[in-house]
Amino acid sequence: MYQDFAQVLIREAKKLYTDQKLRVDLEEMVYAFDSSTIELCLKLCPWATFHHGRGAFKMHTLMDIRGSIPTFVRLTDGRIHDSKVMDKIPVEPNAYYLMDKGYVKFDALYKHFHLKNAYFVTRAKDNMVYEILERRKVDPDAGLISDQTIRLTAVKTSSKYPDTLRLVIYEDFSTGIVYRFLSNNFQLEALTIADLYRERWQIELFFKWIKQHLHVKTFYGTSMNAVFTQIWIAICDYLLLIIARKRFMLEPSLHTISNSIGQILFKRGNIRDIFNQPTLCVNTPEAELVDQLSLW
Fold it and tell me: Residues 6 or more apart from 103 whose CB is under 8 A from it?
């Protein structure tokens, strides 16, 4: 029931955030895909087998970057590898899909994204074997090291992805770390490829939200249905908050609204007047929770 209700809320949220502007100047849809492992007590939840005697399940999520809307969620046991869920993702032509290197599964990237005219941006693995077909000029002052057209040359990978790929090598000046971005898009600027991958961090913020703000560390049931139901309730809670924030043009951050809602739940008044006042009080200072994240 809550899973079905979440689908209704997802459609409503997507309508509200259709005109939301991206930090990257793109009109196309941009999605981030990742998973989060949520640990459980294996003795209480024997169905949640993970490894080394631990219990856990995974929350595989596709997020619409406009509005940070989780549009697709699949819950599995912890043993399912992230890449095995790739072919379950709903793919739209001309949309961009941002994934980390755990999803570098070349047959899935080729068949499920490239052949469906969708674009992906991910990070190349260190052991990738390839030949360089073309080099393009880049701006070193922007952190770009190279922009290349490549073809995979290893026996297995070349058969799984027979077409050319784009490899953009970028250095983050603030940390000195060099990143190698892999994509099937050759039209965007090289720096835009790097900026697109940076947007993937929004899905990490969502997972942090689910774990920390919606209190899923304590489960009220131990069966698979009970645990998954609580997760879907948390997702519905999140969706209701982003819908309310957009529909009523609320100024505070989502964290502030979430921490305040319990205090004013039975207060009568206009929701805009309640939340858009400068003296809105919350229990937990937001600054305590924002220092620990990295853009990459």
Answer: 33, 82, 83, 86, 109, 122
